[in-house]
């Protein structure tokens, strides 16, 4: 596990870019923490780090947003804050977990009933003050063993 602090939105986006640059198809990231913690903000960096050119918008109302990154990878960005049981997005989400061309980012994974794969990255953002966030990065599974090395 790594624990970092960022002192601005821009710093969090930069950290996200570094993480995104290390990702590849088949990867799963869970983003946890309070509303306004910075889950969507760090996602902006992660999506950019994966080579997508589009601006990231919050999937709070759409549940799912899709971006195209490097090497024909698609980035599926979910926000399950408003998930209703059995929502169609949950089924598509589960299918995407099995694709080696998809990187899956999930805000509010706590609201999913499905069991998630053990191999995953978890990023937990905690509000310290208006401009400072504590960011914990945890990895589960051998696949991500070296991910935290040079963040
Ligand atoms: N260090 C920081 N890291 C990330 N966001 C920050 C930071 N400092 C201030 N902010 C602000 O906090 C808010 C985070 O919102 P957002 O990323 O949408 O949160 P979430 O998706 O977790 O609800 C944004 O308005 C952002 O500008
Ligand atoms: Mg959000």
Structural summary, described in words:
- It is built from three helices and seven strands; from the N terminus they run βαβαββαβββ.
- α1 crosses α2.
- With 151 residues, the chain is of the alpha/beta class.
- Strands 1-7-6-2-5-4-3 form a seven-stranded mixed beta sheet, sandwiched between helices.
- The model has no long low-confidence stretch (mean pLDDT 93).
- The structure holds adenosine-5'-diphosphate and magnesium ion (MG).
- The site of magnesium ion has 6 residues, from α2.
The total of helices stands at 3
Number of β-strand runs: 7
Distance between the termini: 11 Å
Q: What is the C-alpha radius of gyration, as a whole number of Å?
A: 14 Å
Low-confidence runs of at least 5 consecutive residues: none
The CATH homologous superfamily of the domain at 8-97 and 106-113 is called: P-loop containing nucleotide triphosphate hydrolases
In spatial order, strands of the major sheet run 1-7-6-2-5-4-3
The profile of the biggest β sheet is:
7 strands, mixed
Which CATH class of the domain at 8-97 and 106-113 applies here?
Alpha Beta
Order of helices and strands: EHEHEEHEEE
Quickly give the structural class. alpha/beta
Name the features.
binds magnesium ion; 3 helices; 31% strand; binds adenosine-5'-diphosphate; 151 residues; seven-stranded mixed beta sheet
